[in-house]
Structures
1.
Amino acid sequence: GPGLLDCLGWINPWFLALAFAFWLLNLLTDSYLLRVLLRSVDDDMPFRQCVYAFLGNEFLTAVTPFQSGGQPVMVYIMHQNNVSVGKGILITFFKTAGQIYFFALMAPVVLLIWPQFLQVPGLTAFYIYGILFFGYFIVLTIFVFFKPHAAKRVTMRIFSFLRRFKFFRKKNLGKGLRKTLKEIDVFSYFIKSVLKKKKLTFLWLFLLTAVSWGFKFMVAIAVLWGLGEVLNVAQGLGGQAVTNFLSFFAPTPGGSGVFEFTTNAVFKGVVDKKELLFVFVVIWRFITYYLSVVLGALVVIKVLKIKKKSLDDEESAIEHDLSTPAARDYSH
C-alpha cells in the first residue's frame, strides 16, 4: 500500500489541519480533566505539567501490552510536582475507570441505534473479548464499593484459574495480582471519599471524558471529509465508540493491529469509497497514535530525564513509595 506521504497527498490540507486541531483539543481537554481530578483531592499542578502527563501516558500506553504502561509515568510527573504517590495512583486509576465506564455505556447505545455494527464479519471474537473484560471491570467496581473483600477473593480465584494455562504461566501473574489487589483498595477509598465530599467530581469526570473522546473521534471524521467522504457524523462517532470498546483491552502494545483491523472493518459500512479506507486508516492512526508517541517520547526523555530508567524501574520506585506509611495516607 502507499506510504504516509503518499496518503497525505490524497487529503485536502484544510481538513488535515482541522484533524490536527481536533487532536489538539483532545489533548487540552484531557489535560484539563487531570487538573480537575487533582483539585478534587485538594491538590494541583501547572497546566503544562498536565500536558506532559498526557503525552507521557500516551507514549508508554503505546509501547506496553494491554495499553497499561501509562499510569506509572503520570504518577511520576505528579510526584515531581509535589503530589503524593497515593493521590497520583488514585487519580490515574479513577481516570481510567471513567474511560472504561464511558465505553461500557456508549457501546450498547450505539449498537441499539445501528445494529449493523454487530453484523460486521470477523468481529464476533472481539465482541466476546470486550464484553468479558468490560463486564469484569464493572462487576469488580460494584464489589469494590459494597464488598471490597469479596472483590479481592474473586480476583485471586481468577488469577488462580489463569495459572492453569501455559500462556499465563509464563507471565508474572504474582506481580499482576498484587497490583490488582492494591488498586482495589485505592479505588474503594477514592470512591467513598469523593462521594462524601465532592460528588460533582463524577459529573466532571464523565463530561470531560466524553468531550475529550468526542474531539478524538472527530479526527477521523475530519480525515474522511478531507478525502471527499460525505458521511453520517453521528454514525461515524458511534462506530468509533464500538471500535474502542472492542480494542480497549487489546493485548498488543498500544492496541496496534487491533485498532486498525476493527476500525477498517467497522468503517466499511460507513464510507462509500471503500478504496480510500487504507488511506483513511493510515492518516487517522498517524495523527491519533504516532504523533502522540513521538511527542510523548520527547516528554519522557527530555522533560522527565529518565532516559536510563526503564518502566519497570519506575514501577519499582512507586511500589517502594507505596509501602511507606506516608504513601498509605491518601489524604496528605
2.
Amino acid sequence: VPISGGQVECDGDRSYRWHAGMVIADPAWKPIQETDKLHPVSRHSIQLWSRLLLPRSQRWVEIPCGRVFPEDGGNSEDAEAPPLEFDITAVSALGTIRAYLQPVDLSGMRGHTAIETILAAVAPAHPRDLTPTMHCLPPEYVVGEPHGGDPVADMHAIAASIGMVLYEDAVGVIRLDPVPDATPDYDWSTGVVQRIDVEDTSRSELVNSLLVRSGSHDVDPPVFAVAQITDPDDPLNVGHGFYYPAPPLVSDSVTTTGQCQLVADTELVRRRELRQDLSVVIPPHTHLQPGEVAILDRPAVGVVGTRRVTGWVMSLDTTALQAVLMRGAVNG
C-alpha cells in the first residue's frame, strides 16, 4: 500500500491495541466497491512495519508494528476526478468485533477456554494464542444476547478475573498472557529520552487498600479478598496509619478467595502505578509493547526509577520521533 503519511497508535489501555490513520498516495487504491482491498468489508488487513538501521552491522531490519483492518475510507463524490490521495483509518482485530449473534454459555469453563469459546462464536477467522489457566468461571455463566452485547468487554473482564491481559500482538495474533511484572526491559537513564512531560495524580485518586468480592449468585457464600500496600519503602504503606480505601470491586467472574486475591493484587498494582502519567519523546522504538518497563532518571521532574509503557504514538514519517506514554511500575 503506497502510504505517504499518517500515524500509528499502540494503546494498552484501549479495548483494542492498534489504530492507524493513513494517507494513501495512489487514487487507484481508493475503496469504491466492496471487493476493493481497502474496503471495510473486504476482509483484507494491512501489516505495518518499520525499518531500523543497525549501527554496527549497517543492516536494515524490519519490525512489525501492528496488523490493522480498514475501518473507514470515504468515497469521492466525483468518480471521474478522484483526488490524488485519500485518508483511511484502520483498527486491530478486537476493534472489528461488534456483538454476539446469540448468547454463549461459558458455565464453569476455565478462563482461557471461555475466551476461546467467545472468539469462536464472534471472530472465528482471527488467529489467537491463549495461555492456559486453572481459574474457572461460576457454574452458571452466560454472556451476550441475540445480535447484542459486548464480546470484547466480556473477554477483557474474564481476562482481568484470572490475572491476565487480552491484546493483539504486532502481527495480529490475539493473545492472553499474564500481567507483566515490573522487571526492567530497557535502561533509558541516559542518552535516550529527549523530552519528558509529567502529570501527577491528585490525592483523591490515591489507593492503598482494595477489596474484591464475588458478584455471582452461584457463588454462595460470597468470597472476597483484600489487597493493601505494605512495602515499607512505599509512602502509601498502610503501616503509616493513613488509609485510602477504594470502593469495593465486584466481579461476576471470580469463584474462589484465591481468585479474588489475584484480582485484588493486580488491580491495586495497576492503580498504584497511576500515581504518575508521563509522555516521553524518544527516537523510534517501534518494538515497544505496553506492559514493558524502562528505567528513567530525571530527578528534576520527579521521575527516577522504573516506569511502565502504556502505549505510544508515532507519525508514519522517516524523520519522526516517538511519543511514549508511561506510568509508574510496581511489583505486586
3.
Amino acid sequence: FGLNPLPFLAVSLGCHFVSGFVVARIARQLDLGPRLALFAGVLSVAMYPSLTTMFWASAFQHVSAILFCLLCVSHFLTFLERGTRGHQAASCGFFGLALLSNELAASLPGVLAVLAFGRREGSIGDRAVATARRVAPQAALLAAYLVFRFGVITQAPMHPAYALSLGWNLVENGARNLAYLFQERWWFALGFAALVAAAQLPPNPERKRSGMLLGWMLIAALPTLGMPQILPRMTMSLEAPFALLVADQLAAVIRRRPALSSRFVETGLVGLLLLVIPYGVLYQRGSQPEGELNRQLANALEHHFPALPSGSCVLVRLDPALGWDDDTLFIM
C-alpha cells in the first residue's frame, strides 16, 4: 500500500472485527448462550489495548496473530467435539500462520491443552493422556518452528525492549496487563471483582469453564511477563479470553435470576458495553491514524531532498528533546 495509511487501517480493522465474530463462535462452542456470545464478541473488539494499537500499520502482526490464534482455538474445539481430522489440520494451519505473524503465539499449545483437559471427562490421568495426544500436532509444529527460528535463522541483535528477564518485572508486568485490560478505570476493576464474587455463590455448575478461561488468560500472558516493559499491543492476546470470562461470570449470575426478562438482560448487556468502550482513545486514534505521520515525514523529506533517486535509503535520527524515543527510523 506504499505510504497510504488508509488501506493498512482498513485491513487491520477488518481482521480485528472478524476476530470478534470468532470470539462469539468460541463462546457458543463453550456453551454460552447467544446473547452472551454476542456480548463477548463485541467486548473483545472494544477494549483499550487493541483500540489504542491497531491503528499502527506495524501492529498488524499482532492483529493478524490474534485472528489466527482464535481461528486455531475454534477449529480445535470443533475437533474435540467431532473428532474430525480436517478441523485438527485447520487448527494446525492457523497456528502456523499465527507463529509467522508474531512469536507471542508460541503459548497457544498450552491454551489448547487447558481447553482439551477441561472438556474431557474421566480421571486426571486419562484426561492428561488424552490431552497430550490431541495437542501433539501443535506441540510438534511449535518444536519445529523453534528449531528453525533459533537453530537455522541467523540471530539478529535483540532490542533491549524485548530482552527477557526475571525479577520484579514479572509482578509489574502482570499488574500492567490488568491495568490495560481494565483501561486504568478503578470502577471497571471493582465491578469485575464484584461480578466474580457474585458468580462464585452456589450453585455454579460451570466452574470448569471458568477455570479453562482463566487458564487461557494466564498462559497467554506468560510470554509478556518477562519483558522489560509491557505495551498495550502485548496485552491484546488477553482480550478474547477476558471477554469470554466476563460473559461466563455474567452467565453464572443470570442463571440465579430466572425471573429476569430477556429484554432486561439485553438492555443490561448493551449498557455495560457502552460503559466500557474507551471513547476518548477511539476518537484520538481514529482522527489521526499513525500511518499519516509516516506519510507526512516522507513528504517532508521529499520536499527538502527532491533530487534523491528512487529507492534511496534515508536514515533519520529523531530528537529525544522533541518527545521522540532515542531511536532511528529508516525510510526506503
